[in-house]
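ARCHIVE RECORD
Type: protein–small molecule complex
Small molecule: flavin-adenine dinucleotide
Source of inputs: curated submission
Record status: active
Notes field left blank by submitter.
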Amino acid sequence: MELRDKQQHYRDQVREFAVQEIEPLARQIDDTGEYPRELFDKLSDFGLFGIQAPVEYGGQGLDTVSYAIAVEEASRVCGSTGIMVAAHNSLGIMPFILFGNSQQKEQYIPPLASGKNGLGSFGLTEPGAGSDAGATKTVAVREDSEWVINGNKCFITNAGMCQVLVITAKTEKIPGSRGISSFIVDRGTPGFVVGKKEDKMGLRGSDTRELAFENMRLPQEKMLGNEGEGFKQFMIILDGGRISIGAMALGLAQGAFDYALEHVKTSSFLGKPKTNYQSYQWKIADMYTKIQAARHLIWHSARLEDAHQKIVLESAMAKLYASEIATECVRMAMQIVGQRGYLEETPLERMYRDVRLCEVGEGTSEIQRIVISRNLFKSK
Amino acid sequence: MDFAFSEDQLMLRDSTRDLVKENFALSANDEDKDRSLNPETLKSLKDLGYLGICTPNESGGAGFDTLSLVIVLEEIASYDASAALLVSGMNSLSIGGLLPHSDQNVVRDYLSRVSNGDLIGAVAINESDDSYSHHANRTRASLRGNNYVLNGFKAHVLDAELADFFIVSARTGDDEGEISLFILDKNTPGLKIESIPRMMGNNAAAIGNIRLDDCSVPLLNLVGKEGGGLASAQTVLQLNQLGLAAIAVGISAGSLRESIDYSKVRTQFDQPLCEFEAIQFMLADMSTSIDAARLLVYKAAVAFDQHSDYAELICAAKLFASETAFKNVHHANQIFGGYGYIKEYAVERLFREQLFTELFAQNNDTLRLHISKRLLG
Ligand SMILES: Cc1cc2nc3c(=O)[nH]c(=O)nc-3n(C[C@H](O)[C@H](O)[C@H](O)COP(=O)(O)OP(=O)(O)OC[C@H]3O[C@@H](n4cnc5c(N)ncnc54)[C@H](O)[C@@H]3O)c2cc1C
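STRUCTURE (tokenized, with ligand):
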């Protein structure tokens, strides 16, 4: 699990930044559901909005391991910041990095890597197309040299604060997941309607919205990649996204663990230090063991990605495992802390609500199990 | 062994189910946001006698047994856990705290006014997070002339902001077990209710902390004998635990009900969710665990009614019902996918409410200690 010096150094820096700048505001962000502009600008200055974007486009040019570290550290102190950073980097910018032509890269990556004028979003999910994302009903019809797009998206992260987003739409009337293409939609495009912010259980500082496209017209240049390759593209995007949702879960688990460990070390039960009791010792041991195992899986898939190898199986396992053990860890921390954990005054109360998303977003646990078993059945 | 309910119990269950489904269900999500019960819901609970459902007829209550209480709590909690918490708290207070001392005029008066919905009371016994020994650790009462003077602090008192009076435990001697119970009007000078801004769920249960600063209480408001309050405090706690166990079953049952309905109407990959084996297995596990938890809760309630050895059964019922409830709300949230994360859906609220049943009225690890202590003699 050794990190390279550069990665370790980055980890220390992000940890310090997260503890000093993000953590003190985490409760307020959850309470108000508003992301403070000042903090947002600090994330931008630190480079958290362009972690893997190439240096020549104004990004940090870091590897996937460093990216996973950044998401983990942000999530450790604030889940809302974690998902904002994760969605922006792996869903917002990544489509441009992977599939953009040079003109699209030049136009979109630098402002996205800064984030100052808004983030990037990825509009895949629809009311009728969640796990079955290939069932997209949004249609793009060619009229003269333009595409006319109609449809709805839902649960789109960062949509209220985005400058541009990539969406999927059906460009060909054929059944199944074929005939889907990706389009770039600039904020303010006529016919692009951003809906109201969802009122969520957790991650309340993260902006999640419905979108509508009403006769929205886009020129051909706004198509990302080749026509009909949308499905293939978003499968690749989601492979990477899974690493980041896994890293987010890991961060929340680590945050809950750190809080619980400190509590056990400084509290007593029936007149004896809590560290004396096996019920606490066991939970602390189990939590840490699971967290380290999850970190192994996540860093392993990140390293495979950095080595340009296939990560379908590994990223699905990492996301599945990390999100499930994160739920367990936050619950164990709750048992350790007791009633007070249920009250707003502890970060555990927030983490418990935040972590719930990790078993659902970017492919539910059930979908991960389908992906994993399908890969195992296929291989010889 | 007879698993059949009596006619009365069946009628009570069905009428409660109809009432809750038609009148409480729609406002439960708003109650959580508003942090108070819907006035109509509160009025129904009072007028229909739910707050004194276990109080004997001669004391002004409806005279049902404890088994009936848990049946009712489950029904209410499956739609509105905060309302169920109020019903549970009030009956625990009446049966555990007031009824045994209803030969005292003041106590009898409070008991009948609670039972007919005139007054809301809250139990202020707990002082810490662990609450292993429900003893008053920091709250003291000392005799001064014709009054007791109380000083101390009570933590996480349910319905504190709704209550007209409190049953407060305080030490009246040097020994740990010398606990006395007092009735304190909410307007007692020196009594301060500190509201708790927000909890994960059950926000309509209006939980608060209570500070007692030289609170003067007339001698007549001592419940039972001085130094003899431990047994009553213990019974109140046990009934609260039983209540939470029943509420946990209700939360589970609500999760299953919502899950079945949703899995039939939501389609993905061209078929309803309920046609996926993974979803079917979840539903089967939910139903199985609910039945098991329900039987344990019934058994504990019947043991309480029959005055047989119920302490361990109540611990076991709360332990098991609340932990299986987690699996159930978790499955339900999973089945709803992204929609389970949105406040419009009942399962979002049920998920937050469930954890309460694990952590309050002694958390589950504490119950494990109680159970093993009894096993080992
Ligand atoms: C906070 C949040 C942020 C999000 N951000 C984004 C975003 O930025 N962009 C975006 O495009 N989407 C986003 N999503 C959407 C998210 O990816 C979907 O919610 C998720 O993929 C599940 O889809 P669904 O909600 O429609 O659930 P459904 O697909 O309806 O699933 C319901 C249940 O059925 C199960 N199920 C479905 N198919 C099968 C099967 N074949 N076998 C067994 N079980 C099955 C699921 O596992 C789940 O348990 C976000 C969601 C949330 C809650």
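CURATOR ANNOTATION: Strands of chain B lie at 121-124, 140-144, 147-157, 165-171, 179-185, 191-195, 208-218, 222-223, 267-268, 271-272.
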